[in-house]
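Entry type: protein chain
Record version: 2
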Amino acid sequence: MHTTDHDFLTKSNLIWLDDENNVNTWMCFRKEFTYHKKAVPAIARIAVDSKYWLYVNGTLVIREGGLKRGPSPKGIYFDEIDLTEHLKDGTNRLAVLVWYFGKSGFSHLSSGRGGLMFAMQNGDSLLLSDDTWKVSKHPAFVAADPADAPTNFRLAESNLYFDAAKDIPDWYAPDYDDTAWQTAQIFPQDNWGEFVKRIIPQLKDFGIRDYINTTEHTDITTEQDSILTMRLPYNAQFTPVLEITAPAGKKITVKTENYACGMYDEKCAIAVYYTKEGYQTFEAYGWLNGETACYHIPAGVTVHRLSYRETGYNTEFVGSFSCEDPFFNKLWEKSRRTLYITMRDTFMDCPDRERVQWWGDVNIEMQMAMYCLDESALLLYKKGVDSLVGWAEHVGHMMTVVPSGTDQFELPFQNLAGIWGFHFYYECTGDDSVPKRAYEMSKHYLKLYEMGEDGFVLHRSGSWDWPDWGEHADSKVMENAWYYMALESCKKMAGLLGCTDDIAFYEARMTSIRTHFNKTFLTRENGYYSHTDNGIPDDRANALAILSGLASPESKEGVLKILTTVENSSPYMEKYVLDALCEMGCIDEALSRIKRRYKNMVDEEYSTLWEFWDKSGTMNHAWSGGPLIILSKYLAGEQPMDAIRRNRTGKTTIE
């Protein structure tokens, strides 16, 4: 595990209050200190479990800082922030609001202890978190209403309940009197472990905006319990804002259309606000996502204005795509919007039900980002690789979901795709840091597999057998093709890194698979086939035969027949089917398949793409965005990173 510039933090202290480690705990910290402007910048280093809001002299400097915990099972991220421009000569005051999730999830490993650690060079001395800081539990963040369903078990975030009658207004202001607050207590750092510097930027704040229909619900008084459905211009990560006049004790709940997800009605996060008497404004703290914000407002409340603040990963859209067919233009835009909404602390599968970094999703998201986002987006991939390796070093082998504080998942097909992606990333960027970081983990993972007497790799089931959603997978063909692609990637990485002694291992296994592949699986008229539960060759298996380079020239007619008539793949594996068609030179067939398979998603008046073809999953899954790559690469003739490079020269349109 590599750590960066964390020495000051190791001299600091973990501060909190005893017996305040329940789920959804919010803690306020204040510190007064003297600062004199010097040539040395005031670089602060901050680590929390789990999120923080930082005020300097009453001004909010960082909104939702910190990253979900888990660069490794023993590690925690820290932020590095230059506060020089926010400080003045003389007395200064820091205020920090810390949100402790208090539980783990699929994307967060709780330390079991809420806490703040702070360190900053202050002239010739260090300003450290210690028992000179003042602290108070924020009383307005109250317990959940038992009548409301909690967030589903995958989320580390809980529903948030804020009681305005218990608020402590302006507690972060320089002149706030904190003499009644408690003195911060110092605790052991037992479960905080290694400090890892955040490499991704702080969140982008788009500011507070009106909904499309804000004026339709301005200065109205509800005569009965009402739901005001407010429309955003697209599916966004946002915090809802309200400006109202109300009696005390009214409960206002904000949900989105994504609140109940998928076939199992899994509940996502909501924001709840209890009113105080009179005029009041409020902005929720935890982010939601969707195209509509549904404000459940009881009778007797005067709504002055409803608005929202969009936040998101700090990257820029680069490039565009246009052709004569509006279908493909719309699909490209939907794919990019879906990619963006699945980026925050990590590349996510979805921003509502899970917010989880599944590596199969990440491998596609990384490829998409190269065509439509600036270079900062790729830092999110590098952060993911770092955490993947950090967990492998502790767990003993490559995982598929990290960080993870609950179930530990290994899906071998996704891992093999990820190993292929490590060298692909290098080929596109020239950045060898990913191969350097991921190589040993990848080599070790490939050596966990054994070869069978038939010359093929023995099946590795992992946590469960998952070649793809959808039916009729030909797993043996798929697994050997994925394994071959991963071997080839590791062979290339070994050459790049000078690990020449390892190359013989990869070549021997590649030779074994290549020797037996066509004579065992090729059926001539129907492409490649080993076994499916319906007895029909599988589109995904045949696609991987092409992409791995294992397919023989005489297989083309049979493979093409399968790829144009069989439609087993989920939106995840559809990207690889389309890739294969295009690599075979069958661009028209690929475009026809896109139109068939994506018709319902494009026709739907929704800005993002679905997890499944039938809308039974989430409405925002970037693994469905493969057509963005296909259209950019094969229709527009783009190569990965071309849009980024062109953006540097000010030319940003793909025609």
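Comment: The chain has 14 helices and 24 strands.
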